[in-house]
Write a structure and sequence with these properties.
CATH superfamily of the largest domain: Glycogen Phosphorylase B
Order of helices and strands: EHEEHEHEHHEHEEHEHEHEHH
Number of domains: 2
Strand content: 5-15%
Shape: globular
CATH class of the largest domain: Alpha Beta
Strand order of the largest sheet: 8-7-6-9-10-11
Largest sheet: 6 strands, parallel
Number of helices: 11
Helix content: 25-40%
Distance between the termini: 47 Å
């Protein structure tokens, strides 16, 4: 590696909370390899909040408005304010790579190039940066981490403590039932059956009001009517939600959810996770690691395109070619993830042991 860069701009304007969390290892690796650098990140709200207390990030920038062209304008403003000597972007639309290249900075403008179907997105980013000589081989082991303040940690402990019984036979399980997009939703009947099964086994259950990445779907709440076994966390912004996940993790919790930002946020907050993958390929979009179980529904689906998910016929409409029209179970790949397989994964991640007593339990 050469001399450290002094001005670094990372652009992630893909829009999803999960997209930003997947680029966090690259942000942290670049900060580690360029000590003392000014590292700015340009991204969207609400995900931007996750970086505002991050010691690796000097400043977080966001587009000024939501109209067409806002992202390109935000890149131009960032370049005019301070010219970077290194620019890295996950974003390919609206001529943003060309705009960065015209600044004269050293640029890495395609972190998506030639992706293999079996390499996870965040790891692919790091491997490309390694090939560019910008990180080192040991950086490939970097995992997403969200940094929280002491006050946020204390608030998360208090919030989760109020929602859980003082003693339980097993660690808690947090259910992330809203997938943001219908195509990623696990069937409501599966969620209800899982909740009943885990409650019988002695797991306290929590569900959450998660910040939405997309407009509300036409379907109602997944746990409707409400399951008496499940306590609902009070509404929280993203940082508050991360603090609750961290507090649950200190109690040995497992978080279960689809391929969504909140599930990735849970993992980045230290929690064990069980991911329910259907239209997205777990080998590419999974959470990975010893504290994660990524369950793939209908692995032989002929319509799945692991490296071009938005071109799948089901992606935008959730109209699954393999499901009966109007099926209440939704996409066949999501329905294929069984309640029994999820329960087994929860048991494995819990280790079958009683919940640990966390330090500083509220």
């Amino acid at each position: 590696m050469g001399e450290p860069y002094r001005e670094i701009l990372v652009v992630d304007l893909l829009g999803g909370i999960g997209d930003l969390i997947m680029v966090l290892p690259a942000v942290h690796a670049l900060a580690r390899r360029n000590p003392g650098a000014s590292l700015r990140v340009l991204t969207h709200e609400p995900g931007a909040a996750l970086l505002r207390e991050d010691p690796a990030v000097t400043r977080v920038l966001t587009p000024r408005h939501g109209e067409a062209g806002a992202e390109r304008e935000a890149v131009a403003e960032a370049l005019a304010a301070r010219r970077p000597d290194l620019a890295v972007t996950t974003t390919r639309y609206d001529g943003i790579p060309d705009l960065l290249a015209a600044s004269g900075a050293r640029c890495v403008t395609d972190l998506w190039r030639r992706p293999p179907a079996d390499e996870r997105v965040g790891e692919r980013y790091l491997r490309i940066l390694l090939a560019e000589g910008l990180v080192r081989p040991d950086d490939l082991r970097t995992r997403p981490v969200v940094r929280l303040t002491a006050d946020e940690i204390a608030d998360g402990e208090s919030t989760v403590g109020r929602c859980l019984p003082p003693a339980a036979a097993r660690p808690p399980v947090v259910l992330v039932t809203d997938a943001g997009m219908d195509v990623k939703r696990w069937p409501a009947a599966h969620w209800r059956a899982l909740a009943a099964l885990l409650a019988r086994r002695g797991h306290p259950l929590l569900a959450l009001h998660a910040p939405r990445e997309h407009p509300p779907t036409a379907r109602g709440p997944v746990l409707d009517p409400p399951c008496p076994e499940v306590a609902v966390l009070p509404p929280r912004d993203l940082r508050g939600l991360a603090a609750c996940f961290a507090a649950a993790a200190r109690r040995g919790a497992v978080v279960v959810g689809g391929d969504t930002g909140p599930l990735r946020l849970a993992a980045a907050s230290g929690a064990a996770t069980v991911g329910l993958f259907g239209p997205t390929w777990a080998e590419r979009y999974g959470v990975a690691g010893t504290r994660a179980a990524d369950l793939q529904g209908l692995p032989g689906c002929p319509h799945r395109r692991p490296v071009a998910i938005t071109e799948q016929p089901c992606w935008w409409t959730a109209a699954c070619p393999l499901s009966a029209a109007g099926s209440p179970a939704g996409p066949a790949c999501m329905a294929d993830v069984s309640v029994a397989s999820v329960a087994r994964a929860v048991t494995r991640l819990c280790g079958g042991t009683p919940a640990p007593h966390p330090a500083g339990d509220a």
